[in-house]
Amino acid sequence: MKILFLTDNFVPEVNAPSTRTYEHCREWVKQGVDVTVITSAPNFPKGKVFKGYKNRWKQTEVIDGIKVIRVWTYITANEGFLKRTLDYISFAVASFLAGLWVNTDLIIATSPQFFTVLSGRYLGFIKQKPWVMEVRDLWPESIKTVGAINDNSILRYLEYVEKRCYKSAHQIITVTESFKKVLIDKGIQKDKIHVIKNGADLNLFQPKEKDDTLIKTLGLEGKQILGYIGTHGMAHKLDFLLDCAKALEHTAYHFLFIGAGAEKNNLLKKIEQENISNVTMLDNVSKKEIVNYLSILDVALVNLKKDNLFKTVIPSKIFENAAMGIPILIGVDGEARELVEFYGVGVYYEPENQKKFLIALQRLNDSKNKDYHASGGKRLAREYDRKKLALKMLRILSAD
Questions:
Q1: Three-class secondary structure of residue 106 per DSSP
Q2: Mean pLDDT for the chain?
Q3: Out of 1.10.540.10, 3.40.50.1370, 3.40.50.2000, 2.60.120.10, which CATH number does the structure's domain 212-383 have?
Q4: Could you tell me the CATH superfamily of domain 2-199+385-397?
Q5: pTM for this one?
Q6: What are the DSSP calls for 14-61, one per residue?
Q7: Which residues touch 155 (CB under 8 Å, ≥6 apart)?
């Protein structure tokens, strides 16, 4: 079986779409599948091409048996709606042209970069091959939610095109049950929609002793460390977490943020303007380094803007933190909250409600609950082992 996978992000980038695609494709190769990934030169989130790569028409490499074709794109930082849209469109065009020359049995295109999905759809049509749409985000609804675009004729046209993609796809893979329900409500055929949630690589993410050297390097000895590791975007409402940090400024709590994104500069300005002293902000680190940073956390923070749309999502960082036995403080309602509470891996607080945040933190730090949360994390990790999920997805792809 030959699979062509289109994704705007891929390793060595460390965001959730890159990690999921790489870990799935790696397992498929182990099962004897011929996998080709078309992606861009690694540059997320700062819009700077990683060392050892160039942004040129075509460059090819092999990563863990996966043939990777990198194509030229208009590269920009993960900020500014118009520039990012040009980035996405350029990848769609370049991936389509490169994909014409790849021999394949099946095409997979993954969102949330919606234009990548269009590339997959048109490649399927031209090559007369089945194509699979992986829905990682309800786009364009999500960009409307964060205020990146108003409800206008352009948005309605994109919603029309989105629905055409759903209908033409041979199979649809969603990352939450809520997404599946939304698509069914849109009139999409139920039996072609399958749910493969996110998970964690258990060879990498597992409980480990705190890295005392790292704690000392960061100057956080004796602190209760609350950590947010991930994209600093419009949807994540991290200014709310800074307000919570301010409220806890004269306590042992210290907030550690690692990552980059469209809102990071605004967050840094807020810290400076309000002189918030119990926050450390770092840039992205490699996947292997992330494990060391996670090990020093007393509490993992999962936070999103308060909006009904986000009741349908499950942030991927839940799985990695749970696998390492780190208690989770979650400000995301809906399916994510249900998952956290079902496995007992953390405590929920109402999004953007500081009073509820502080109460939930107090509950989470009750020493009697720590072993309980760690035990729940082990159960969740076993259930959402990325290897298992990759094999489940391969069975779906191979069904026809």
A1: strand
A2: 92
A3: 3.40.50.2000
A4: Glycogen Phosphorylase B; (3.40.50.2000)
A5: 0.90
A6: -SHHHHHHHHHHHHHHHTT-EEEEEEEPS-TTTT-PPTT----SEEEE
A7: 140, 144, 149
Quick one: pLDDT at residue 111? 85
Contact 76, 91 (CB under 8 A): no
> Taking a C-beta distance cutoff of 8 angstroms, is the pair 251, 241 a contact?
no
Q: End-to-end distance of the chain based on CA atoms, in angstroms?
A: 12
C-alpha 356: how far from chain center: 26
pLDDT of residue 80: 64
**Could you give the residue range(s) of every CATH 3.40.50.2000 domain in the chain?**
2-199+385-397, 212-383
Which residue matches tokens 């759903």? 166
Across-strand partners of 225? 254
* 381-to-170, 271, 323, 400 alpha-carbon distances in Å: 30, 35, 5, 30
Sign of the four-CA dihedral 173, 177, 178, 181: positive
DSSP, collapsed to helix, strand or coil, labels residue 59 as strand
